[in-house]
């Protein structure tokens, strides 16, 4: 989500969808699939819809989030199953073994967010509190006190606050 649908991340403009998929194209995660320009457009739409679902979760509107997620799950054929390569162990996936990479990514991503909604864990979702960062994160701390997506954002925000405090003391 953070690589595909947020405009700024850690104080810099995000590289965007095409850059993220160009990086993915060479990785083992795509298992040799070709990603066309049309595929990227579909994934951009799905990423935007998932961002809307996350924003609805953060706003406490779980019914709206569920509606968006159900649509993505239905349209991209999310179905739980076990599959593996001949030399690997079976793993649980939420897309058909024969699914395109677009449907697989959409189904897996929507399923992950749906699990948070269905298990009442959306209070663990957060959006980075740093300026110039729109990234989402999952707070795994005991007291759900996380405020930043990364240590880099936390350090940047604390340094900025310190500099502001020093400027205030001088004036």
UniProtKB/TrEMBL annotation:
Quote the Pfam families the UniProt record gives: zf-CGNR
Boundaries of every Zinc finger CGNR domain copy = 124-166
InterPro entries the record matches? ABATE, ABATE_dom_sf, Znf_CGNR
Question: Where does this protein have coiled-coil stretches?
Answer: none
Q: Where is the signal peptide?
A: none
Highest taxon in the source lineage = Bacteria
What's the protein here called?
Zinc finger CGNR domain-containing protein
